[in-house]
Design a protein that fits this description.
five-stranded antiparallel sheet; alpha+beta; Nuclear Transport Factor 2, Chain: A; 560 residues; elongated; Beta-lactamase
Amino acid sequence: MLLIPLGIACAAAFVAGAAVAGGSAERDAVERFAKAWQEGDYGAMYDELNAASQDEYSKADLEAAYADAAGTATATSVAVGDTSGPEDRDGQEVVLIPTTVQTSAFGEVSGDVAVPVADEGVAWQPNLVFPGLAEGDELQADTKFGERAPILAADGSELASGPASARTTNGSGGIVTGETGQPGKKLAEQLADLGYPEGVDTGTSGLELAFNNILAGAPGGKLLAVGDGGKAVLAQRPPTPGKALRTTIDANLQDATAAALGSTFGGAAVLDAKNGDVLALAGLAFSAPQPPGSTFKVITASAALEDGATTLDEQFPVQTSTVAGGREIANAHDESCGGDLVTSFALSCNTVFAPLGVRIGGEKLVEEAEQYGFNSPPTIYNPKSLALTQPPDSTIPNPLGEEVNVAVSAIGQGEVLATPLEMASVSQTVANHGVRSPTAMVKSPELAGDYPDVEVMKPEVSDQVKKMMIEVVNSGTGAAASLPDAQVAGKTGTAELGTTTNSEPVAPGEEPEQDVDAWFTAFAPADKPKLAVAVMVVNAPGDGGTVAAPIARQILEAGL
């Protein structure tokens, strides 16, 4: 009789018990495989394959198989339960992984994934990528789409309607709503995660893109296992139709604004003077910032008055040019210009406002501009939608640096850039007793974004700036914007862009002709403001008072 030492016998009993209670090497491998799948760690999954499987399939093969399945199923997460087995199935040892996959298009899909095991590892097969697939099956999606919802004006009339592949815009609403069509690569990848297969038309710009998920609804259909035995439905869900998007746009004013701008290369924006809501947009309303020229003097004036750097009654010398920051700065057309602050603003004297910018300093000027909304994304809708569409900021360098940069920035030149939407917001701020309101484009507070009102200046300062803007229209450079039945308060601007490419050679001592942008920003009626507007004409044939102010007048006349 062979006697076994007691310690060895106990150890043997322990090992045998562990094999029964704790599973096997194969099951342990599957447990690690399942945990890695849940965490999306394909490399760790591959490490659990046995040698034969690794010889047949590369790590890239496995990763591509799971990525393709996740894309087909629109999977957003995988959760696994406690494994069981091994057990014998048709002569093959398998370990079962209870698996639940959440999908965007088809809902929740649950089932056991039977993982073959051998040689202390996973004997991997391509059908292990999804629950419900038998050996040789492929995962396929029969995707259906709900009806794309319309984009509505504030009064409920349709600005855009129909399927993404044949979207119809009404009147001039397409300028606001944006376009539908084939998405670019980045957008296509984002949409694939939401269940949209390659080649499907969708929103590509404007509101159609910003709120595509709301307008398009959610896809549905059937998720199928397809193999030699035919098709089996793993999950199905009907598509969800989109929800209508109500905007702040005034349909009639939108048409009038587009008509006023016509074929002119430029942009126009109209806001509700009380709450900042966007009522109409045309052309390059917020897509192509340009130097705002002397319309920026509204900001310079409010900064100087708020800071106590000047008063309405201060007298400035009448001159054709001055030196500010070590640079000679001239008035438009070398005109003599000066007098008190109101007159200097009405006549748009560079010789007054460039030195005034230096007086208040670059830090204060930038701070004031940022209070008006510069160096921040336009507050047209919530941050998530802004990230999709990425509208450009209106900008001013921060810091401005040398005094010469402060001087030219104070008159809207240098590196200052703005959109008509931003400059309309500047007028809205003055009209609203110094409080800047968000420029919402959609009615839903959730979609519009939670942007606070900003107190840019005290009410008494806004009253002073309003007085100056009224004088621009009554006796200054903005007379072409005047209306017979409503007092308009405005500011012209003419931004020099550089020497024109079409200019003729000039005589010695003469200045070459400049390309210019023409601007006008305003609100009306001045006593009870209803509308704020800004117009920009790029490469204009004249100055702001001649070219942009009449367009603004036409818009205000239609809106009032």
